Amino acid sequence: MLQFTKEVDYGIRLISTLAKEKKGLLSLREFAQKSQISFLFLQRIAKKLREAGLVKSGKGAHGGYQLAMEFKKITLKQVVEALEGEYAVVNCLKSNCACPQAGCCESQKVFRAVNVKLIKYLGDLKLVEILGK
Question: Which of 27, 41, 117, 118 has its CA 20 to 30 A from that of 95?
Answer without folding.
Answer: 41
